[in-house]
Amino acid sequence: MMQINFLAIFVAALVPLIMGFIWYNPKVFGQVWMEEAGLTEDKMKGTNVGVFIFSLILSVLISYFLQFVTIHQFGALGMIGGDVMNANDSYQAFMKDYGMAYRSFGHGALHSFIAGVLFVFPLIAINAMFERKSWKYTMINTAYWTITITIMGGIICGWYAMDGFHWVTQK
To answer: Residue 166: what pLDDT?
Structure first.
């Protein structure tokens, strides 16, 4: 039976905040990003705790979604309407043979990276073009989100243990 690992989702949801502190630090890309976004240090000083709390909530939503991008077993479950209790024999046989197949950090990271390139980049680029932002702005934000969701997807797909904080490797 597919269970949602809420601990993995929450841990993965911390990644955007941690990556943001690093990526948008003035010594990394922060200064360039502020210039390209038309922001000043004075305007950025107004950021409060509420922004970080709401960012964490939104990051939980991203993490929750990424499990469906990275864990193929959810697709098999979807093909039977999500009803494990009334699953047919072919589903049971599939899960017996492939139940934990492709459940690794690397596999989740790969699928999330592909989502970054094929989904995140177009979203950010379209908005940036209409906002008249530069390609530098587009690439700073796209790279941040692509790297961030790559790590998040790896955590979510690879950490399938429901019995605590330790990482369980693929059998």
So the answer is: 42
